[in-house]
Design brief:
Blueprint: H1 3-6, E1 10-18, E2 21-26, E3 30-34, E4 49-55, E5 58-64, H2 65-68, E6 80-86, E7 88-94, E8 96-105, E9 118-120, H3 125-134, H4 151-159, E10 162-170, E11 173-178, E12 182-187, E13 202-208, E14 211-217, H5 218-222, E15 235-241, E16 244-250, E17 252-260, E18 264-265, E19 280-286, E20 291-296, H6 298-301, H7 305-316, E21 332-339, E22 342-347, E23 351-356, E24 371-377, E25 380-386, H8 387-390, E26 403-409, E27 412-418, E28 420-427, E29 432-434, E30 446-452, E31 457-462, H9 470-483
Parallel strand pairs: 2-9, 5-7, 11-20, 14-16, 22-31, 25-27
Antiparallel strand pairs: 1-2, 1-8, 3-6, 4-5, 6-7, 10-11, 10-17, 12-15, 13-14, 15-16, 18-19, 19-20, 21-22, 21-28, 23-26, 24-25, 26-27, 29-30, 30-31
Length: about 500
């Protein structure tokens, strides 16, 4: 055997600089080196976690190597992200790449130690460094059970003597549709394809995740006055008509309400004559009757058979439009809201309703800083948590657009104050990704991540059971019990 044949193989190292130090990473661990990408911040994560990003369909956490080493951040125009393979990709933000060189014989002890000033990173050392903040990040992201209601809980929710409705505004008037009829609610796009030779009620077609969606003016359907140009608050309520999907353009989405059926009155007979007949199936009373919301009838909203046929013909041209009852097979529905400029989602089954922030909340002495107070929700005392403060975000949102998501967790209700509620979104399973290990313990507020590549968008999906740890849940339960006999004003 020749000397060359018997020589042990050499190993390459990627030398990177972090502050005034240089480190050598085994090139076999490095998948690629990229420029710092756009990232979505993760609340309550370790300080070294800069956020998560989309790497060709995979959700990748990006970690500051400076912070892992206990150093302060320092902006660098040469900064790069070194993507390493730990079952799933993990990005390490470094100040710059120094070189790629061959070192000594390949082994767990091999490193270019002959070059002064370069600290070798031996096998296992990087994992130990990451484990301080992220637990066992080396293993593949574990699958977590969905946090949506299932089994008896779902049946109990469905059998309540209540009706859930999506409340929106058209021409300055309040309307609603039963939540069971709504596929999703999305923002009205800036560009709509206008279809020639169609009824004025037909606005045209829009793209919904790669599919064409017929777009109808709800103003026109209801015979209301024509409006001005659409604003940034305009929404499209996606409903099912005749086995297909159609978008109803509305001026603004307000709330999702879960109301007792006793709060909904039949429409007075004198109001159901002529063109208005049967379009409204009931009127619900809010705030003791000071606000009235008309609930539309999906069965009679589209009475023009020619229009239904036109909608169906346009829907059939998009063959991937699903036709099953309810959400498409494998799709999950989420209520999407914003906090600190980031998008978050909660499974729609876990949200009882979405309401406006009341004028006053009853403050509670000696309560945690994140507990804003309690509110009276139709006789029920509901603790309200400032989710921005809970996630340690600075500042607060625009007061008039803030909403409270009323969520039921372990037989108790809590309201989560958020900056705004933007949409109800139906997300295919193919776009739902497991969350990488982002914390050292087993608890994790981020349940999954919706990676909607066609829109270049990432939505952090929260696990409502982890929004409150056990101590906080016990505290809020005590608050609720203490106030049951003394309703908030």
């Amino acid at each position: 055997m020749t000397e060359a044949a018997s020589a042990p193989p050499t190993q390459s190292f990627l030398t990177v600089q972090v502050g005034n130090e240089r480190f050598a990473l085994p090139a076999s661990d490095v998948m690629e080196v990229i420029r710092p990408p756009a990232m979505t911040r993760v609340p309550l994560g370790p300080s070294s976690l800069l956020g998560v990003t989309n790497l060709r369909g995979a959700v990748m956490p990006v970690v500051s190597l400076r912070r892992l080493l206990g150093q302060e951040d320092s902006p660098s125009s040469n900064a790069r992200v070194v993507v390493i393979d730990r079952g799933t990709p993990v990005g390490l933000l470094i100040d710059k790449v120094a070189s790629l060189r061959e070192g000594g014989p390949a082994s767990s002890e091999a490193a270019p130690a002959d070059r002064p000033g370069i600290a070798p990173v031996r096998a296992g050392e990087l994992d130990a460094l990451l484990a301080k903040d992220f637990g066992t990040i080396a293993r593949c992201a574990r699958s977590r059970p969905s946090s949506t209601l299932q089994g008896p809980q779902r049946e109990a929710a469905a059998n309540r003597d209540e009706i859930a409705v999506v409340h929106f505004v058209v021409a300055g008037q309040d309307y609603a549709l039963p939540l069971a009829s709504v596929h999703e609610v999305v923002a009205l796009p800036e560009e709509v394809v206008v279809v020639p030779h169609t009824d004025s009620i037909m606005l045209g077609a829009m793209s919904l995740r790669g599919q064409l969606l017929p777009l109808v003016s709800l103003r026109g359907l209801l015979g209301l006055r024509a409006g001005g140009p659409a604003t940034g608050r305009a929404r499209v309520v996606v409903v099912r008509i005749g086995g297909g999907l159609v978008g109803l353009a509305v001026d603004d989405m307000r709330e999702i309400l879960r109301l007792p059926k006793s709060a909904i009155d039949p429409v007075p007979t004198i109001l159901t004559r002529g063109n208005a007949e049967a379009q409204i199936q009931g009127i619900c009373r809010l705030e003791g009757g000071r606000r009235l919301v008309s609930i539309l009838s999906m069965d009679h909203l589209f009475r023009d058979q020619a229009m239904i046929e036109e909608i169906m013909s346009r829907t059939e041209k998009s063959r991937d439009m699903d036709t099953a009852d309810g959400p498409a097979g494998g799709d999950e529905q989420f209520i999407v809201f914003q906090l600190g400029g980031e998008d978050y989602g909660l499974p729609i089954e876990t949200v009882d309703e979405v309401v406006r922030v009341p004028d006053t909340l009853t403050r509670l002495p000696k309560s945690p800083d994140f507990v804003e107070g309690v509110m009276n929700l139709r006789g029920r005392v509901v603790p309200v948590i400032d989710q921005r403060r809970r996630f340690q975000f600075e500042g607060r949102g625009e007061r008039r657009r803030e909403r409270i998501l009323v969520v039921r967790i372990d037989q108790m209700q809590a309201g989560f104050l958020v900056d705004r509620v933007s949409e109800v979104l139906s997300i295919p399973q193919s776009q739902l990704r497991p969350t990488p290990d982002l914390a050292a313990d087993e608890s994790q507020v981020i349940d999954r991540i919706a990676n909607i590549e066609v829109e270049g968008r990432m939505i952090l999906l929260l696990n409502p059971r982890e929004l409150l740890d056990k101590a906080e849940k016990d505290l809020l339960a005590t608050i609720g019990e203490r106030n049951l006999e003394r309703p908030a004003s």
